[in-house]
Amino acid sequence: MSLTGPPGSLRRSRRLDVVLRTIDVRGLRPDDYAAVVPRAQFDVAAALTTVVPICEAVRTRGEDALREYSRAFDHVVPESFRVPAVAIAEALDQMDDPLRAAVEEAIRRRRVVAETCEAEPAWREAELAPGARVGYRIVPVRRVGLYVPGGLAPLASSVLMNVVPAQAAGVESIAVASPPQAEFGGMPHPVVLAVCALLGVDEVYAVGGAQAVAMFAYGVPGLCPRVDLVTGPGNIYVVAAKRALRGVVGIDSEAGPSEICVWADDTANAAWVAADLISQAEHDPLAASVLVTDSPGLAAAVDAEIVAQLPANPLAERLGHSLGGEQSGIVLVDGPDQALAVVDAYAAEHLEIHTRDAAGNAARVRNAGAIFVGPYSPVPLGDYSSGSTHVLPTGGAARFSSGLTRRSFCRDVHVIDYDAPGLAAIAAGIIRFADAEHLPGHAHAIALRQGDPGEPR
Questions:
Q1: Considering 203, 305, 349, 352, which one is annotated as catalytic?
Q2: What per-residue string of b and e applies to 40-59 under the rule 16 or more CB within 10 Å gives b?
Q3: CA 324, CA 14: separation in Å to the nearest integer?
Q4: Backbone conformation region of residue 292, classed left if phi is above 0, alpha if psi is from -120 to 50, else beta
Q5: Residue 350 annotated as catalytic
Q6: What angle separates helix 157-169 from helix 97-115, to the nearest 10 degrees?
Q7: Could you report the per-residue pLDDT of 372-422, keeping only the tens digit for each?
Q8: Which of the residues 189, 283, 350, 354 is marked catalytic?
Q9: pLDDT tens by residue, 93-129
Q10: Quick check: is 118 catalytic?
Q11: Are strands 132-140 and 410-418 parallel, antiparallel or unpaired?
Q12: Tell me, what's the pLDDT at 9?
C-alpha cells in the first residue's frame, strides 16, 4: 500500500500486490464524509425492470410462473414447492450433533435477547385529563414470510435470525422460503430445513428470488396464503421485489451487500483486523470492507496481512473482487474525532472498534447497524451466536433504520378512550382547529356531542 503524498490529498492509490485502496482524508474537513468513503454501487431501480414482470406473473399465473422461474433461475423444479414435513424432519435427523448443538445455542442466545432486551410492555396508557385517556398497544402482525438466501452462501443462520424474533413477538403464522437446490433434489439446503425443524417451523417453500417475495405478497391459491410482512436478506432481485411490492405487503428493509467497517488505532492486532475484513468480504463480490485508522503503520500491516491470508481461503477469487472493488478500502484520518465523523458518515452495517477505550468510542457512535466492541467481539460472532440480530441496514441506511428485531414484527395501535366531560373540556378548541382547516364536518361531529344540533359551518 502506498502512503506517499501530502495529507489531505484525497489520493486513491493501488499497487499490483495491494488489495485495499487508500483514501487519505487527513487534513480535510468536508461537509459530508459520505461523499468520500467507499461505497458499493447497488442499483435497485435498474433491477426493477427485470423484477416487476416476474412479480406480475406470479400474481396472475401462480404456480405455473413459479415453475417457469424455478427452472430458469434455480435450474431445478421441486416436485412440491411446499417442502414436505417428512423432508424437514429428515434434515434434522441427519444434522450432525456438534452442528445441532451450535445451532441450538445460537437460537437460545437470540431468544434470550429477543425476550428481554427487545421486549416492551404490550400496553401503556396516559391519562391526559379526567376522562381523557390514550392507550398505546403493541400488536404483532398475524402472518409473516421470511426469506432465507441460498445462492453463494446458504444462510441457514438467517432462519433463526428471522424466526426467533417473530416468535418472541407473538406472530401466529410463520412461513419460510429458500431457493431450491439442484444438488438436494429441488429442496432448500438441508441445514436450512434442519434449523426450521429446531424452531418448529413446518411451513417451508422451495422458492427463491423475486418470485418468493411475490408469492408471499400476493399469495398463490392452493399453495401459500398471502402474508402481512416479508423480512430477510437477499440479492438485488429480492431487494427490488421488496421495493416493487411495498404497499402490497410490509417489508423490513432494502438490504444490500454486506458491509464491515473497522475503526482501529495502533493498539489493534493487524492479523485479527485483516481476518475480520476478509470474513465479511466472503459474502458477495459487492461486499464492502473498510478500515478507518489514524495509524499508517497499522494500515500497512493490515494490508500485508490480507495479502498473506487470502491464498489460504477457498473463496480467494470472490474476495479479490470484493476487497479490490471501489466499495472497499482504507481511510486514513487525523485522529479519533475525525475517525468518528467518518464512521458516522459511513453508517456501516457492522462496525468493529479496535481502539483504546473501545467502549467509550462505541458510546459516541450514532450511526451503525450493530457495534462490536473490542478485539473479542468480531462480526462473525454476531453472524451466528452473540444473541444479536444479523439482519441489519446497509448502504448507509443505518442513519435512519434499524436491524431486524422483535419490534420489527409489531405494529403500534393507539386506543383513544374519552368520556363526555373529557371531550367537552377541549371541544371548543377542536372546533376552532377544524374551522381553521376548512373541514366543517369535523367541527360538526364534535359540536353535536356538545348539544349543538346546527348544520356544519
A1: 349
A2: bebebeebbeebbebbebbb
A3: 9
A4: beta
A5: yes
A6: 40
A7: 999 999 999 999 999 999 999 999 999 999 999 999 999 999 999 999 999
A8: 350
A9: 999 999 999 999 999 999 999 999 999 888 999 999 9
A10: no
A11: antiparallel
A12: 39
